[in-house]
Amino acid sequence: MLNRVDGTSPAAGATQALARFVAETVSLPATVELVARRCFVNIVANMVAGSADPEIGRLLMAHEALAGTPTATVLGVPKKVDPATAALVNSASGNILDFDDTHPATLIHPTAPILSAILPIAERDDASMADVLLAVALGGEVAIRVGRALGRDHYTAGWHITATCGTIGAAAAAAKMLRLGEGGVRDAIGIACSQAAGIAENFGSAAKTIGVGSAARNGLHAALYAKAGLAASPTALEGPKGYLRVTAVNSDAALITRGLGDDWESGDTSPKPYPTCVFLHPVIDGIFELRRALSNDVGIGRIVVTGHPLLLAVTDRALPEDGHEARLSLHHSVAVAWKRGRVGLDDLTNDAVHDRELRHLAGRVFAIADDAMSPEAARVRVETSDGKCHDVLVEAARGSVRRPLTYDELSNKCADLLARDGSPIVAPAALVSLCWQGASHADLQRILDLGAGRAA
User: Fold this and answer.
1) d(C-alpha 89, C-alpha 67), whole Å
2) pLDDT band for position 298 (50/70/90)?
């Protein structure tokens, strides 16, 4: 028998505090709801576009042998599947293009796993869009606060923080959608702590995407287990052998509860402007700025990028082998940005990484680590063949909290994603508009039907 924590006691820990926060919160500040809506619009478009990737098809095929009752939608796929498969595949589709969203302080991409965990419940039950956005925001808040408590040690040790914290946030969101009370939410979080995994060594491979998919499925399972009465330690996060101490030696559980309910960390989550690792965004902006100032056919001696050590740790991939690695390659992204004046999905394909001109320029890209640099900043220097140097410092990239995409920019991005080859969407702009404006359960069902290609 587990010892229970009295939820009313001042000594109640971080796990209990998060559970109470999730169970008792019934509405969102307007600014937080807007962020959740922006992330919803963005991830729905990513799910549809991502579903056309061949690896998503293989993922669906792999689950056919284990398929349950087909009651849940996979965006981009007309045929329904069982809820667990839908959660996994939608999350994988939402993340596979690296065009999702980011919380800058933790580097978590929260919305794909969290939204994917709750959609099967929302589709089955009479959930409104307000219910969905509330669960998305609460799940994001849980994931991000756990990420804050874990600190940079968790990430630098090699944990894939989107998959790990995403599992815990997805469990909390699914528990909210199931209308569990404080004890049920606490057990869902605790169960998720035993399922939260993912390693950075798999970046650039299909396994990275599977990890994000598994975060949604495992979070959904954790909430369903809790609903069925299965229990977990009430201190699964902060206990002596809890998730925080096991996966980050210098973790700080106090960061989970500091300002909880008043300061919404999830409000800093922003949709991406480029389909690459977020560390590359200020680099790309710097290249664009220098490209505008110089002639793009100027002779290049070399291009030197200075950034936080994490920039090199994640993106030092001089010769990516395929499109997945290209999205994590500093060298390829710099070459594409300079040569083509853009960095889009069509520039990050298997064909693009073997383009001779791009590979030649990529070989002239060098990187320097500087501990004093913010992970959100980058300094770019172009050294031309005439011996001149041209520098720019980008302190906040386009798409960051300080420079978020505008309504029109985000809407256009999503419409473009929905119109890509392989998309079943007949009227992309109409679906984007419904994602922005939808309110009722009927609107949510219409979004799912349109997004799956079951309606025109």
Assistant:
1) 13
2) confident
